[in-house]
Amino acid sequence: MALATGGPEVAAPVRGPSAVRADVQGLRALAVGLVVCYHLRPEWLTGGFVGVDVFFVISGFLIIGTLTGEVRRTGRVRLLDFYARRIRRLLPAATAVLLAITAAVFTLLPQSRWPVVLREVVFSALNAQNWLLAVLSDDYGHATVGASPVQHFWSLAVEEQFYLVIPLVLLAAALLAARRGGGPVRYAVAAVGAVTVVSFAFSVWYTPVDHGAAYFVTPTRMWELGVGGLAAMALHRLRPGPSARLLLGWGGLAAVLVSAFWFTTDMAFPGWIAALPTVGTVAMLVARDDSLARLLGLRPLTYVGDVSYSLYLWHWPVIVLLLELTGRDVLSRYQVVAAAVLSLALAALSKHFVEDPFRHRRNRKRTTYAIGAGLVVVTVAVASGGWASAESTLAALRTKPVLDARYPGALALDPSRARPVPTGVALAPAPAVAEQDGPLGDLPNDCNIYDMGGRVTSCMYGDPGAAKTVVVVGDSHAAQFSSALAEYVRHEGAGRWRVKVVVRNGCPFTSVPPSEAGTPIAVCADENRLKLDLIRDLDPDLVVTAAMSPESYRADLNWTWESPERQVEGYRTMLAALSEADIPVAVIREVPRPVTFVAACLERHPDRRAECDTPRELAVGSPTDPLAEAATGLPGVRVVDLTDWICRADVCPAVVGNVVVYRNNHLTDTYVRSLVDPLVAALGLR
């Protein structure tokens, strides 16, 4: 992420192209240190992600400062020279890391993750990773098992897009100045200022609208680079006295450190709160305080600043791959030290054997562009080929397995079963595709809409003219049982029962919906009122509902309820309404939750499946299920507990009857289909 450590790009704009400010290198060290510490153990530095914001300000300060100096001296911007310098400076090291990660994908990562990571390698090579992550709304939290080793390339993409746009903005300002007369720098300041103001306004508006995407997209970040550029433009006019320099310098450092220790991922970011580390960084850059400069100019800090770009590139894949190798969710203290040392060593090697040779090589521009294009093409070709091959391999594994004597699944837990479970049989589904083994092909979108706000619709399975109807309503933990019921009404229950599925991911059947960042998801409550009317009009013979536990909502989505009592109240309101309408209801108690990513664990330990099991007491979790508690005492409402069909007496296995039990916190569809008999019996459909 850092720019050049020598040469024109790092010059303090008012001193000419040969000067290098040691304190700026120290600031780079601070920025990369915050990011690395945050990624190693986020609980140590909950807001360490603001190091990226510090980098953005430094980049804007140096790049716009250098380009403005060129405009001031020559009245123009040499675009081809500028882009050639960027290619020599940034592309070789980034390519080396991306190719190393591509090799690691095939040797260290589970097969299920190959297409996802290789796709991100392609987008990273094309400097579009931030837009991919914005579309996916990935959470830029700390590394865990399953994190992408190239996720951090999003910030490089933002900077590269900035490098494409801002020279054109300054060139346009210079041309306008030449046409209308007047100083070109004045037009440049106006142009950069306009971009900065518009970007900041958009960031403040868009962050609360969609803070997941807002974190990554370029328009919400341009203002941070722009503020740094404006500081560079004004630097020659700023002459703060000794006291002001002292206050600006140390006050700016305090602002960055307060942000690093105070901010958390629960805050909507960037938005207006990003102004604190941004303004703090600007203050340090313009202060030029001698005492702060001496601190930031210490040789250890300036060395880390020198290698900060490579350190940023290498540290994240080192952490992610170490977590994959150990199967841990967080690094131990010894592993933290090992990851830090290895990252710094790789950064030093990359700096001295990749960055410097390419940066100092004075090729003709045509040669530089040819090398740059070649590096991008090779990376994209290698990653794309691997991506396509991996997708083809996984597609062949996604066929729904037939449940027969080799794959009894849940029936292997039947105490009356006499036949042993066959051994030496491949697991179903294959662990590499278990995460995609969802209900009814993961339910078509007109049954299970993933984005809130769509129309309430439903799907019907079985004979439309069947005498009896069962309705499945709730969130994805209710939807997961759809396949078992659809299987029943298509075969044994054909002609007698039909199933209507009315579900919404992340929206349990409640009048009190979960809250995101303290704001209730009102559309969920609105939709549930419509669903309640739909069910009452249909007057089914049975309603089946289930809901993800509050612990899972908090852990997986960071959604919460005001209080446990309010959560129970919301469920009870809906259940009571059905009870008063004399509509029978079966509440399926929350299924046990594994403490590991089962599919990935089975890929890592194909011969040691027991390592992927979860003790029953941990999997079952809290003995209180809010939905089950809400059902207590309501006429016609009963609770169905399938725990004994998922877990043994002391453990909840990852594999039962040669069938993989879990996909993330849900049951695999294959395992649910093996539950047809016990589920139908428990619901009283026979």
From TrEMBL:
One of its GO terms (cellular component) is membrane. The chain crosses the membrane at residues 48-69, 90-109, 161-178, 185-206, 212-234, 246-263, 269-287, 307-325, 331-349, 369-390. InterPro entries: Acyl_transf_3_dom, Acyltransferase_3, SGNH. Residues 455-677 form the SGNH domain. Keywords: Membrane, Transmembrane, Transmembrane helix. It holds the Pfam family Acyl_transf_3. GO terms for biological process: lipopolysaccharide biosynthetic process. It comes from the Bacteria. Residues 23-349 form the Acyltransferase domain. GO terms for molecular function: acyltransferase activity, transferring groups other than amino-acyl groups. This is Peptidoglycan/LPS O-acetylase OafA/YrhL. The lineage of its organism: Bacteria, Bacillati, Actinomycetota, Actinomycetes, Pseudonocardiales.
